[in-house]
Write a structure and sequence with these properties.
Blueprint (H helix, E strand, L loop, with lengths): L3 H15 L3 H12 L11 H10 L5 E6 L3 H9 L5 E7 L3 E3 L4 H5 L9 E3 H5 L5 E13 L4 E6 L10 E5 L2 E4 L4 E2 L7 H4 L1 E2 L3 H18 L6 H7 L1 E5 L3 H21 L8 E6 L10 H14 L1 E5 L1 E6 L3 E6 L5 E5 L2 E4 L3 E2 L2 H9 L8 E3 L11 E3 L4 E3 L8 H8 L6 E2 L1 H4 L3 H7 L2 H8 L5 H6 L9 E2 H7 L14 H16 L1 H6 L25 E6 L2 E6 L3 E5 H14 L6 H4 L6 H12 L28 H25 L13 E4 L5 E4 L4 E3 L9 E3 L14 E7 L1 E2 L4 E5 L4 H10 L5 E5 L2 E5 L6 E3 L6 E7 L11
Parallel strand pairs: 1-2, 1-8, 2-5, 8-20, 10-17, 11-12, 11-17, 12-13, 19-21, 27-36
Antiparallel strand pairs: 3-4, 5-6, 6-7, 9-18, 14-15, 15-16, 22-23, 24-25, 25-26, 27-28, 29-30, 31-37, 32-36, 33-35, 34-35, 34-37
Length: 777
């Protein structure tokens, strides 16, 4: 993945040189098709008057604890000036956490994934104060939050203070879950904060510097350069992939003598990595990591971590092993923060692992305290708990028996209040709730009593699911809660939620409903796995660009010298540079103020205050840019190596054009077709007289045929790999890398030569056969 951003601009520049008219098409298409508009911020007199009127009203105070995805999303969407807001957090910035693995290896700079909270709130019409401090106690009786400054004590020597609240929004996130494993906190790195990513990056470099010292032994070098990742979830897998690309594409060039000592291991206690993803993605990721030389050990539970060794227990055998390492990154899920655990004990939730809220994100039993993000979970009400109340709501005449028509007035409220019903209908392939009821009607009277109603809904609660602790969930919860606060007064007068089945009237708001938009798993080598709604799975380079596009649309990107160095190489590259760095895409909203397109191209400027039109313009432009990027990728396919025939090997020449050449020991079937098939200059044989003494190897560096493995093994060295191939009459070539060996048989497909492959190919030939007809690679 590392270098993908730069390689795209290089490809775009090459395409521009080959297709000079393409630049005009891109510019016209992006500007006209994208509907790019700029807006000046206009505040009407009526809006100002409204704000002035609000200043005379006593405002409610909202205290927000945390500046992560949930807290920041709440702040960005809260726009009712009847609130005074105070934010308390030890971090004075919002961090775009999905890119933290990229920060650890320098693909993305730390400053590019953070945005100061004060920048986010300074343009809002509501009063927002920020305190860089840590909350250590929540007092719900007196409605106070006790805080402690993370800075040095003030002039009076005080570092603790309290903050009063009318409404409290707890969005403090979670900490890394160590499962109380001895030595983890003292010896492992975590990947939760920007500071963690920076420390990991420094530790990687320190490991290479230490291993390069002349006083370090061979065994010690192997230990120092053994990088271990614990946890096969999305974060652990992405970090392992990023680390592999960083080491083999960058660091090996700086430390070539250390190449043979490098090893990356991914430990997972379960049966597979990426277990929350589709099995197709899991299988692809495991095979790709095996090909890349990343050792994946599943069923391995870490029992202890010292400063030099990790103790493992194999789940299948119970065997205990010690694994020497140089650096370990711990990524095994999340745990509850101590301050939240203490708060849970105060409110009677001490026996729970995570703080519970209702469907409106209110902490159970505390109507003015809300919790969202990783620090809380929604305790969805069970249908069977309210089954009698639901039946009574529909039975207005108290007859004890109802037909399907009697339920029609409350069906929508039932489905909205209990989302598990919709999941149950989907699993049973029923079109609607009426079909579910009809399946339990009395055959003669076509009526349903309370017992039949219970029977119809008896399996519904088994479909209840907890929401995953992801940034996507937290951001949606923050936005939902802000909208509730914005419409608090309106909905108190005119409730819009479902019926209160245990009480009278309606709930003020509709309950929170999470909408899953898909998930990504970057796997390195500019390949990403995407699992999108509708059971759609995409794996490869196209998913990588989809990943870039989605994250670019959510991240307020800052200028990077990597892009600045390429600015001006062509009109096309300048346009793309401007689109990425100047549009300031931020949480699917875009703020156009005074924008100047580079290279003198003008754009239509309008004055408006219509936020909907602004968002629509941005969305169309972004989709158009993605479409054009796809076209560029297709045109830039000339730089890819996938057009050579069987047994042939492809490489890119100095002009980045693919060339095909037969490897040593092979020659072309058709001398007039250099891109065609190659045939062996010896006679492959698996007859009865086959003897390993008849064969030897041509050793080829950085050449591989990635597909067609029929066997693999974990030899101790290259000799074991060669010996295994010699003894196997079917083996035509053995590929060796990082203590792993893959055997392949003829014909060989998709051959590639690239210095980044970091492999050695042992191509078998029969002794005494004629020499190769073409120059060896």
């Amino acid at each position: 993945m590392r270098g993908a951003y730069t390689s795209f601009y290089q490809k775009a520049s090459n395409v521009y040189r080959v297709y000079p008219r393409l630049a005009k098409f891109v510019i016209v298409g992006a500007v006209s098709g994208g509907g790019l508009l700029t807006y000046s911020q206009v505040r009407s007199y009526s809006r100002s008057a409204y704000v002035d009127a609000q200043s005379t009203i006593k405002k409610k105070k909202v205290v927000v604890l945390g500046t992560g995805w949930a807290g920041t999303s709440f702040l960005k969407n809260l726009n009712d000036p009847s609130y005074d807001v105070e934010v308390v957090s030890p971090s004075n910035y919002f961090a775009f956490t999905p890119l933290l693995p990229s920060v650890t290896v320098g693909t993305v700079e730390a400053r590019s994934v953070v945005e100061p909270i004060r920048n986010i709130v300074k343009k809002k019409d509501i009063k927002v104060l920020f305190k860089e401090a840590e909350c250590y106690k929540i007092d719900t009786v007196n409605q106070k939050v006790h805080c402690k400054s993370i800075q040095n004590t003030n002039a009076e020597g005080k570092e603790e203070f309290t903050v009063d609240y009318d409404y409290l929004v707890v969005a403090m996130g979670a900490r890394a879950n160590t499962f109380n494993t001895p030595g983890v906190v003292e010896n492992a790195h975590f990947l939760k904060e920007v500071e963690d990513a920076v420390r990991i990056r420094r530790s990687i470099i320190n490991s290479f510097e230490k291993a390069s010292l002349p006083t370090v032994s061979e065994e010690e070098k192997k230990r120092i350069l053994h990088f271990v990742v614990v946890g096969g979830g999305p974060t652990g897998v992405e970090y392992a992939a990023e680390l592999h690309d960083y080491v083999h594409e960058d660091l090996i060039k700086l430390y070539p003598d250390l190449k043979k000592y490098i090893n990356i291991t991914l430990l997972e206690a379960g049966d597979h990595i990426l277990s929350i993803f589709d099995k197709r993605i899991t299988d692809f990721a495991e095979k790709k990591f095996q090909r890349d030389g990343i050792q994946v050990k599943t069923g391995s539970m870490v029992t202890k971590v010292t400063d030099k060794e990790i103790s493992l227990k194999e789940r299948s055998t119970g065997e205990t092993k010690n694994l020497p390492y140089g650096m370990v990154v711990w990524s095994t899920g999340i745990g509850t923060r101590p301050v939240i655990m203490e708060f849970m004990k105060q409110i009677g939730q001490g026996n729970r692992r995570v703080m519970a809220t209702d469907e409106w994100l209110r902490v159970e039993g505390l109507p003015n305290v809300y919790a969202l993000g990783d620090c809380a979970t929604i305790n969805q009400r069970r249908v069977m708990e309210d089954i009698s109340a639901i039946f009574s709501k529909a039975d207005k005449n108290n007859t004890g028996k109802l037909n399907v028509e009697d339920f029609k007035e409350v069906i929508n409220d039932i489905i909205e209040r209990y989302p598990q019903i919709q999941l149950h209908l989907k699993s049973k392939k029923l079109k609607n709730f009426v079909q579910l009821l009809k399946s339990n009607e009395d055959g003669a009277s076509k009526q349903i009593d309370i017992e039949k109603f219970k029977a119809a809904l008896s399996e519904v609660d088994t479909k209840m699911k907890s929401l995953p602790p992801t940034a996507q969930v937290a951001a949606q919860q923050g936005k939902y809660l802000a909208k509730c606060f914005n419409r608090m007064k309106e909905c108190e007068e005119k409730p819009e939620g479902p019926l209160r089945f245990r009480d009278t009237g309606r709930h003020r708001f509709k309950p929170f409903r999470y909408k899953h938009l898909g998930q990504f798993a970057p796997l390195g080598g500019e390949q990403t796995a995407a699992q999108l709604p509708g059971d759609y799975v995409s794996i490869g380079h196209s998913s990588q660009w989809l990943w870039y596009s989605v994250y670019a649309s959510k991240l307020g990107m800052t200028s990077s010298s990597k892009y600045n160095n390429m600015k001006g190489t062509s009109i096309l590259v300048s346009l793309l540079h401007w689109a990425v760095n100047k549009l300031r895409l931020n949480f699917l909203e875009i703020t156009f103020q005074s924008v100047t397109v580079p290279n003198g191209f003008g754009i239509l400027c309008m004055q408006a205050s219509c936020n909907l039109a602004k968002q629509f313009s941005m969305a169309v432009f972004l989709l158009h840019l993605i479409f054009l990027t796809t076209i560029l990728q297709g045109l830039a396919a000339q730089e890819t190596c996938d057009a050579c025939g069987l047994n042939n090997v492809c490489s890119l020449n100095s002009n980045r054009r693919p060339t095909c050449e037969c490897p040593k020991g092979f020659s072309l079937f058709d001398s007039n077709d250099p891109d065609g098939n190659c045939k062996p200059d010896f006679s492959p044989s698996c007859d009865e007289v086959y003897s390993e003494d008849q064969f030897d190897f041509n050793e080829l560096s950085d050449i591989d045929w990635p597909t067609g493995d029929y066997a693999s093994m974990d030899p101790s060295n290259e000799e074991d790999c060669k010996t295994s191939c010699l003894k196997d009459c079917f083996c035509a070539v053995a590929i060796y890398r990082s203590h792993q060996c893959w055997k392949k048989k003829l014909p060989l497909t998709n051959g590639k030569k690239d210095i980044t492959l970091n492999v050695t190919a042992f191509l078998k030939y029969r002794k005494g056969d004629r020499p190769p007809r073409c120059p060896p690679l």
